[in-house]
Amino acid sequence: MKAELEAIHENDTSTFFDLLKGHRAIGLKWVFKVKRDPAGNILKHKARNDYDEVFAPIARMESLKVLVALASQGGWELHHMDVKSAFLNGNLSKQVFVHQPSGFVDEKHEG
After folding, report:
1. CA within 20 to 30 Å of 42's CA: 7, 21, 32, 73, which one?
2. Contact at 8 Å (CB) between 28 and 104?
């Protein structure tokens, strides 16, 4: 959980301030996942904040199958990657106001 909040702080994607009149803050919830290897052994525990009705863009399975088929026919080499904290590198079209996450409230900016 600390790593998630440190990534938000390091990428300068949030700022503490009093909520503006006429605006509403949405709640955050912690989402916990366990990452396992193919044998089922635990590799690591992951925690992240989730906003209600926010989704990460991912490719559809059909698109991936077409890509793999084309690569196979064309003799192409495929590579994949994961961008850590990728959601922090995008731009939002509007401001989003959120409450501080439970368990990590900064007393100086509470309210």
Report:
1. 7
2. no
